[in-house]
Records
---
Amino acid sequence: MATQTQETQDVQAHGDGHGHHERLQHHFISLDQQFSSAKLGMWLFLVTELLLFSGMFVAYAVYMQWYPEAFAVASEALDWKMGFANTIVLLASSLTVALSIHFIQKGNTKAMITSLSATLGLAVVFLIVKYFEYTDKFSHGIYPGEAFNPTGSYAYLDVPNAVQYFSIYYVMTGIHAVHVIVGMLVFAWLIYRALRHHFSPEWYTPVELGGLYWHFVDLVWIFLFPLLYLL
Amino acid sequence: MGNNGTVWLPEGASTIAADIDWLFYFVYWTSALIMLLVVGGMVYLAYKYRRRDASDAPRPVKESKLLEISWVVIPTILVLLVFTWGFQSYLKMNVAPPNAYEIQATAFSWGWSFDYPNGASAGNELHVPVDRPVKINMSSEDVLHSFFIPAFRVKQDVLPDRYSSVWFEANQEGEYHLFCSEYCGTQHSEMVATVFVKSQSDFNAWLDEASAGEDLPLPELGERLYTQQSCNQCHSIDGSQKVGPSFQGIYDQERPLASGEAVVADDNYLRESIIEPNAKIAEGYPAAMPSYARLSEREINALVAFIKEQ
Amino acid sequence: MSSATAAQGSPAASKAGNQGASTYLNHKKTIRSWLLTLDHKRIGVLYAVTLATVFLLAGLLALAVRAELFMPGETIMSNDAYNQTFTMHGIMMVFLFIVPSIPAILGNFVLPMQLGAKDVAFPRLNLASWYVYMIGGALVVTALLVGSVDTGWTFYTPYSSSGSVSVLYMTLAIFIAGFSSIFTGINFIVTIHKMRAPGLTWNRLPLFVWGLYATSIVMVLATPVIGITMLLLFLERILQIGIFDPALGGDPILFQHFFWFYSHPAVYIMILPAFGIISELMTAFSRQRIFGYKAIALSSVAIALLGFLVWGHHMFVSGQSAISGIVFSLITYLIGIPSGIKIFNWVATMYKGSVWLQTPMLYALSFLFLFTIGGLTGIMVGVLAVDVHLHDTYFVVGHFHYVMMGGTVIALLGGMHYWWPKITGKMYNETLGKIAAILIFIGFNTTFFPQLILGAQGMPRRYANYVEEFTFLHQVSTIGSLVLAAGLFLVLGYMVYSLFRGQKAASNPWGAATLEWTMATSPPDPHNFTRTPIVTRGPYDFHLADEVFGPQHTGDGAGDGAAPEPAVPRKTETA
Ligand code: HEA
Ligand code: HEA
Ligand code: CUA
Ligand SMILES: [Cu+2]
């Protein structure tokens, strides 16, 4: 990519960058440098995200140790089929994101927009399924925290500390869902820019970064699903 | 026997104090030596090679590998030495001897109460026999507290809904401070109790007297509880203002409540205020009083009787 | 983005040689150009002003704490007021002042220049970090207006989950302010990896850069954990879910693990950049290459990584298992070794040098003294059996002030004096500088050394009131704090004065050999350098650095540090 910018050893310090790609920010020497910086930055950001979630995973592990019985019983209240469906949905969306990058590398903006829209659509599906899951829980009296009703319509939930399980369940899936929503905003913004032909095979950094982010959101779900639904 | 303390450490009055003090001073003097080395070297070099002319251009010096290795290896040896010593003493502090005399301690905001095997109990006063291992089993009624007796060199956090314990063997009679060293709110710094180390016979005498609460007249028992349960931390009997209202002359009076209503401070109200303090909040005061539901029926009656007399 | 600064064209180039005609300070003057700036130097200045204000406020709270402790019983405030005062002092000092301090002020200003770069990798993210920080700060103020926070800076549950609602605002504030650290950390790592000037290899990086690099790693890896901890605490409060509160089935010890998993590494966020500054000062003012460059660089990284494995040393008496206590204690000592390597190397750097005792160097030497005490007392509290006695006493308070105030803040002061000419283009008054440095040194020790003794004698911390026998040492400490404050106010005074009346500074008044001194004017051009530097030597190769002395060895740094202009390579011809 973008090899035309090797000339810049004696930096055109304040010029408006004639001869430079229009996307090259003034403090970088080349598009290559700019792109690899952005990518490294994104990876670091994902590392922080990973640690954010690992905090929750640790809390999960600790309470699982403390209250194994409650966790075993309570996780039965979840519908693994819905969780599984959502896993498929997210995997598919990861694929469409990867495709969109492939298309823009080929210069096919239209196909890229289509696959980005597909991704956005799949994210919506994911949230709809989540919505049904949550409302189903609520209707049976399963809320986070003090509103939790152990004797609701799942009578077998009346084990001590089932509420612990659901507190963690809501926190983890809730924060994950927030990430999905952020992802949707990102995709909407990418589509908007793509429609204005901002991206080209030489420069599509935002798409690449959005894709990385989305793979991460997907990956977190891949861990959440078995932990919460199957164990 | 214990010792009388030094510039750094307070008097030591338990069997492990000597151990800890040795360790402390070993690390302290080693540190002082290292400090001397660093500061001495620094002052010497800064003076010896002080700049004489603005255009000084000293030639670069070659580094000495030997020097570099030595200041990795020597500290490592020191550190491992201290580590082994430190953790052996720690293990010793952790494991209570099996024959230890056991006392239950309850921490609450903001006071201590101690229950003895024979039914005696005391608040904010810990009486222990000298030369005998004592193990304190502790739990908290509300937030975290910590049990700290500097003279014994022991400390252990006290947790709600869980037991923790600490043991010591006092070896010098006398009175010592017991501090709460985990921050617990407004009166954290007032959560100080006194430890009385007594000879076995004095201790037994005290035990008998303390468990004799049964035959005390109610108001007298109430007066004792008033200090033991640290009501006096928050309530005066002379009308002066503390965290809570003074007990002076409140009996049978109209008490304005925060809700805007008022209530007559009769026996029932007093009783309720002790067992369930947040049911009715007195106007102008925070809902800061802990519940005393753990007190026995007789003790509550005693407190009510005591308040009546004020 | 390139528009904001680059559209200005090239004023510096057109007036080449006419120093100061266009600098980053004066090329645009509107408030807007400051608040929306993407220039790392201006962002550094924004942070400097903000953080100095926070430090002033938090320091005044500390004086109030000391005043209350002048006598046992109630001296100037009630218990509740005292608890709120030390809590706010701790929270502001830690989360709002010292964690951002050196990286955000000096790191922002100096790092790109030492790398020979025009800016950090993500200038917008950089500006965002300042705004995020300000939002966090605004929430702290809200928390104060809504009610009071009296949990201590550690927020231990269940006390913190049962108190006033303003704890909610405070946890949210810390959650948000955390992002500002994360942004800075990401920015620095990427900048160091990707933006180095040609020829600037890893072992030619100035040690300040190494310090910032190690810090950034810790910022990126640890900050999210305090984020999630605060978030969980927040959710626990509003939804009553039981995570940390035992009354709801949670585990208060888990909170402590989470909290210290961040907050211990955070102490290295505070100290590693300070180490970097000290390395710069020791060599620049000894005019000697640094002793053991590699050892110093790598020990920073070692400390950063080991720092993740010792958090349990804050919990020796909290009820964790004896085994974890032992393991944590061992690793705690190991950190002493790389720290020692640094100390010894710095001392050895003066050997056969030319030691110039200007104000920044006085701070560097104070640092060696104070930090060694701080570190060694750290080792003392790391000894399991001894910590049982010392935990939560003034000994610990003494320890952490020796490392934070005596270490980080002293290094920050040294760094501020050192780079002041570069940042402002003005010299401060050297005589007053020396007087203040000595006042601060004496005041500091008078304040905090007695606290070490108090603690060992058994004085618990966070006490509004105390038993009689501690009175004398508390009074000495309070008096010391006034001397310390006098020194700091003196610094504030002559620094501000120098902005208006200070002598003009030369490009390289100290004769230092790193790029920001040898290749840029004081204050620098909006784009830092007029030419991208090409690096051919190490950062402390004074003997290879012709720029330092000039071709004719005219000397430099006589008198006040405001040297006759040494021959800084100007842009000779305009392209
Ligand atoms: C800048 C911040 C900073 C730094 C750098 C450090 C550095 C260290 N700290 Fe400190 N610490 C704090 C800030 C910091 N600390 C704070 C804020 C608290 C209290 C929090 C609270 O409870 O509110 C605390 C509390 C604290 C505790 C808990 C005490 C308690 O609550 O009971 C412990 C225990 O191990 C500890 C240990 C150490 C050690 C071993 C180091 C080491 O990194 C020090 C290493 C340096 C040296 C050792 C000196 C130089 C070395 C030599 C000259 C070589 C020779 C040395 C040897 C032979 C060992 N610290
Ligand atoms: C960066 C960290 C930092 C710094 C610098 C300080 C600085 C000071 N601290 Fe603080 N302190 C903490 C962090 C810090 N503290 C923490 C984390 C706690 C624990 C809180 C808790 O328990 O929860 C604590 C607790 C604490 C206590 C214990 C309270 C208790 O346990 O009951 C005391 C008591 O003496 C104290 C005193 C002081 C004093 C006198 C200073 C002095 O050094 C202050 C001097 C500063 C000034 C007087 C302001 C002057 C400033 C200017 C004029 C601005 C000029 C600007 C420039 C020069 C750029 N501090
Ligand atoms: Cu109880 Cu502090
Ligand atoms: Cu620590």
---
Amino acid sequence: MSFELPTLPYAYDALEPHIDARTMETHHTKHHQAYITNLNNAIAGTDLEGKSIEEILKVCKDMPAVRNNGGGFWNHNLFWECMSPNGGGLPTGELASAINEAFGSFENFQAEFAKAATTRFGSGWAWLCVTNGKLEICSTANQDNPLMGEGCKGTAILALDVWEHAYYLNYQNRRPDYIQSFFHVVNWEFVAGKFAAAKG
Amino acid sequence: MKTLFSILFISMSTLLFAQEFKLPALAHSYASYEPYIDAQTMEIHHSKHHQAYVTNLNKALAGTKLATFSLNQLLMDASFRSDAIRNNAGGHYNHSLFWEILAPKEKQTTVIQASFEAAIKAQYGSMDSLKKALTQAASTRFGSGWAWLIVTPDKKLMVTSTGNQDNPIMDVTKDRGIPILGIDVWEHAYYLKYQNKRGDYLSGIFNLIDWGIVSDKYTNALIDPLLSELEKDNWLALKDFHKVMAQTFHPCEDGNFVPLRTRSGELLAKAILFSASKPPVSKDKPNVHKALADLEEQCEKIHELVGKNAKDEVLLKEMTKAHDLFHQVEELCHD
């Protein structure tokens, strides 16, 4: 059973004007699809075939094709779910309290997350993770992620793609503007669900 | 009096040479690279991305002793520099080279030196195979980065690639040499026109590479003193030791002794390897060996003190001594 491209839970133009339809379509049908195709090719006929993507990501460190494409597959899966046309606003409930506890305020959290996303040089991701019940912000290069256990650890509950392909058509060199727009579409309900599950 | 003169001279030369890096002008209009690279991409790439590297590089250097360094000096010792300097100095160098070697077809220099042609033939068989090797390096570089054609210290051609804004002059890269051709494969170099189709961008860009200019760069690289500098600069044991020294000593200065207390054994191990390593020919001098032996002894003392749970202030004093000894080695090496 090979890995498949997930269907988006909303239309390509649903996140306009924050993320444009053409970017969403290319990102999903070309970039994400290519990671999946290349991942399936890379594991075909190996011991990794048939394993879950999470199991694969834990052992792929020295296999560039699996690491890059497996990471690309998993990261985008989470990214799509972290956004919604009804997103934005503020987190509520336990997640809101945990954010206040870890960062002092939602504004501080936003600033720190934006900083991680802005200062990631080159291609990569910014993450909000749960480690031993606590929230932490970190970033990884290329398609690496917290499951690979280098630089970032814990369970990722919010992901932001800062590869140029995620924003270049609409924002070009203005990555900080893209990051601010992302906050208008964050699906906090989904993130809260991930948080509750990760906390156990 | 002599001292006064030299102080005056040094401060004047600092004033003279501490000039800011500037964005170079393009030799051709933004639109003249069409249809292979669109005018909008050229304009944003040059006036926004490259400009940002220049601005941020100047900002990172302002008021530091590095402000008088040449771009090559900053790049060569990249492992000793902050991320801001490494990334922005690389960004400035790489883009400057990129603009130089690109030209619209009708403006290209057609004269390719016979020696360059012979080198390509000897190492790659043909120009087509060289282009294939470059395309391969450029398309398989995952994430952001560059593909290069370089002249190595043994005066050979080599195709290689680096991540982000690193380049082959930097000591952080495996294949070192003087770049004579660079292809930018950051998505910002092609996304507006080609989106995910990096391969199409690469086929297009070969129409813009001015091989006459690359050929001149080849001839110049062969006699560039930087080439022998790169050959001498492969003292990995020094870099290895310096890394652990920096990661343990600087936290001590800020009152954090945990890194030193947990890694003093590793510091000693690196000092032993450093002391036993063979310095590059130009640095292979008795006083260098003496300083290395002193440094090793000092690291051994520190490791013992850590084992005896010595007080923070004692460790700071001994680490400062070790740090001074390291810089003594470095200074002796700058002939």
